[in-house]
Design brief:
Blueprint (H helix, E strand, L loop, with lengths): L4 H15 L8 H23 L5 H22 L7 H24 L9 H12 L9 H24 L6
Helix pairs in contact: 1-2, 1-3, 2-3, 4-6, 5-6
Length: about 170
């Protein structure tokens, strides 16, 4: 059982993310589940390292959980905020670069590259904080900060993907 704890926590993040769908955005329920998702994201990797149960499956599950969480939050939150066109273009460029990295890994390296670089972790943390800052930081400024770090992360990912370096 001990060897499955980290993966079980990661799977719970996927389920919690799906539970956000019917919740009204920025309600107590939404924020409670949202914070639970964030906590599980921080805890699963730590537990895997402490119990020496790090695995490729766990890294892939973590990536899937991150994608589900970001997708659900995007569907729920993005329609509620007004951002200028240049920011949407920037987000699209980042998405294209990151998608290109995944495609490159699949075609050239013949595998899904799970990259958990420091910059990816910082980007994820800033993305997590993003909706929590709406009441005191203009979303344009916080979006620009997140996009700056995400751009650096995507470019950094190009190097790791091309060099076939996989980071857990």
């Amino acid at each position: 059982m001990r060897k499955h704890i980290a993966n079980t926590i990661t799977i719970s993040r996927i389920l919690c993310s799906i539970c956000l769908l019917p919740c009204p955005v920025f309600s107590i329920t939404f924020y409670s589940i949202y914070l639970l998702c964030g906590i599980t994201d921080m805890v699963d990797g730590t537990i895997a390292r402490k119990t020496k149960t790090i695995s490729k499956l766990g890294a892939r599950l973590d990536t899937v959980a991150d994608i589900v969480f970001v997708a659900v939050c995007s569907v729920k939150i993005l329609p509620l905020i007004q951002l200028p066109t240049w920011l949407w273009v920037w987000v699209a460029v980042i998405a294209i670069i990151k998608t290109g990295n995944v495609v490159w890994g699949l075609i050239c390296n013949k595998k899904w590259m799970s990259l958990h670089t420091s910059l990816n972790k910082v980007t994820g943390f800033l993305l997590f904080l993003f909706p929590l800052t709406f009441s005191f930081i203009d979303p344009i400024y916080s979006s620009a900060i997140v996009c700056s770090v995400a751009t650096a992360s995507a470019i950094n990912e190009i190097y790791y993907t091309r060099m076939r370096i996989e980071i857990f």
